[in-house]
Amino acid sequence: MITHFSELPADFDCSQHPIVVGSGPVGLVIARRFSELGRRVVVFEAGEAQPTPTGRDCLNVIFSERRLPGTSIGRARQLGGGLNLWGGQLARPHRTEFADILPFANGDWLERYFLTAERLLGQEKSVSSSPREIDRLATTLTHHELDLVPTSWIRTPKWPHRIWDALQRDQNVIIVLGATISGLALDAARRRVTAVNISSTDGRRRRFAASSVIIAAGTIESVRILLQPGDEGLTQPWQDLPWLGRGFCEHLDSAVATVGVKRQPLINDLFDPVYDHGVKRTYKLFGSTTLQDGQKLSGVLMLSLPGNIRNALAETRMLIRSLTPSAALAKSPAVVRALTNSAIQIGPLAWRYLRHKRLGTILNGSATIRASIEQPVRWPNRIRLVDDFDPSGLRRVQLDWRTGEEEGHVFLSLAKRICGWLNERGSGEAHLETALVSDATAFAAQADDGLHHSGGAKMGAHASNSVVSHELEVHTTRGLYVCGAAVFPRPGYANPTLTAAALGVRLAEHLATTRSTS
C-alpha cells in the first residue's frame, strides 16, 4: 500500500519488520523481493507522489571545486526516485570486472540475483544469445583490445500502472511518502540500530522501531544520512570509519572521434538496436586500460549516427514518458502541477540529450563516437556535510570532486582503439578529437558527467578500507545496511542500476532467510 506520513495512525508499529529508506529502483526492488518471500517491509520516502520545488531544494549540493550537474539532473526526490529519470538500461559489469565490483562473486550462483533483479525492474524476458552478425564482428575486435557488451532496455522505465497498482494493493509493502529520515537510533550499548527518526517539512516528528534498517536512497543521499549526527548531536559509531564519504566516483562522457561513414551496413550491424523476443538491446564496445601503477580503468564506446531516425524517436519517446506522472491523479490541477514540475525536472536532461545527439541523430553531419569511462577511486573525492540546512532540517552536502590525468589517458586509449578498428575494417574514416590529442587531461576535465554516482560507503572485508561488509552491513553496527552504487568498490563501466538492484535482491533474501531461521 502507498500512504503518507501525515496519515499514519498513532499506533503504527513496524518494530518486527525491516525498514527501507528510499523508494527508488533499488529500494523498491528490495521491498518487492521481501514481499515475494512473505515478509512485510516499510519503505520511507522523503518525497511526495510527484516532484515538488521543496524536494528539489533538498537535493541541492554545494561544490568545493568542480560543479557536478548530475547532482541535480540525475536525482529526484519523489515516489519512485530515480525511476522517474532512468532510461531503463540494464547492463552488468564486464566479466573482467566482477571480482573487483562484487568481491564475493565466485560462481554461477550470482546469475540468479541478476535475473531476479531484471524481472523486478520490469524486464519480463531475458535474452542471452547474440545475433550471428554480432558474433562475427566480435572476433575482429580482439586484437584491438575491445569487446562487445550488450545493454538491454526495459519497455517502461517508469513502470506501467499495473506495477504501481500492485504495490498499492500489496499488504506486505507499506510505502510512506513525505517521511524524511532525520537520524538513526541505537541500543544502549550503541552496537545496533533499533529505530529511525522521521520528520516532515511541517514539523511532525516520530520514531519507528525496526528489525533492521536498509538505506537505499541513492549514492549521495545514502551517504548523507550516514553522516548526519545522532541524538543530541552525538557522533555515530560508523562515522569513525575512514572511508565513509570517501572515494566518490562518476562516469565521464564525451565525444572522442568523428567518423565519415563509408560502409553503412557494417556500422548498422554493430550499433543499431536489436529486438529479440520483444527485448531491445544495443551493443557497446568495452575496453580496459592499465595505468602505470597497475590500476585498471574501464570504459565503453558508442556511436551517434546521422539519419538514425528510429533511435532518435525512441529517445524522444522516453523523455516524453518522463514528463508524465508516475501514478494516476484524480484532480486536473494536480495533473497540471505534476506536469509543470516534471518539465522543470526533465528539461536539463533533454538539453543534454540534444547536445549528445541522442535526440538529434535525425540531422545530417558526421557520425560521432562517444566514450563513457570510469574514474579511479580517489581518497580526496568525497561527500561531506556543511553547516547549512535544507527545508527538512538535514545538513546539506558538500561534494569534493575532481578529475585527473588518469581519465584523459583512458579517453585517449579507447579512442585510438576504435579509430584503428573502424579504419582497418573500412567502415569509415575515423579522426580523433583535436582537443583530446593535444591535452588529454584537460579534455577529461571538460567532459560531461554520466549521471552514475557511486562510492562513499564502499564494500569490503575490513573496516580499515571499507564501510560495509560483503553482506552490506555497516562494519561497526548491527542491523544497519546500505544498498546501492554507494557500496561499489569501483564503478566499472556499466550503468549501475542493475548491479545495485541485484545486490538488493541478495540482501533481501539474506535477511529473510536469517529472520526465518533465527
Characterization of the model:
The protein has a domain at 1-98 and 160-250 and 378-401 and 455-518: 3-Layer(bba) Sandwich (FAD/NAD(P)-binding domain). It starts with a strand and ends with a helix. With 518 residues, it is α/β, with parallel strands linked by helices. A hairpin with a 2-residue loop joins strand 13 (274-276) and strand 14. The protein has 15 helices and 21 strands. It has helices spanning 25-36, 53-58, 70-73, 98-101, 111-121, 132-141, 161-169, 219-227, 264-271, 309-323, 332-355, 405-425, 434-438, 440-445, 497-517; strands spanning 2-4, 18-21, 41-44, 61-63, 89-90, 147-153, 173-177, 180-186, 193-199, 205-209, 212-215, 252-261, 274-276, 279-290, 296-304, 367-373, 382-389, 395-400, 428-432, 448-449, 480-482. It is globular. Helix 5 (111-121) packs across helix 15 (497-517) and helix 10 (309-323) packs antiparallel against helix 11. Mean pLDDT is 86; it is low at 327-332 and 351-364. Strands 5, 6, 12, 13, 14, 15, 16, 19 and 20 form a nine-stranded antiparallel beta sheet that branches. A six-stranded parallel beta sheet has the order 1-7-3-2-11-21.
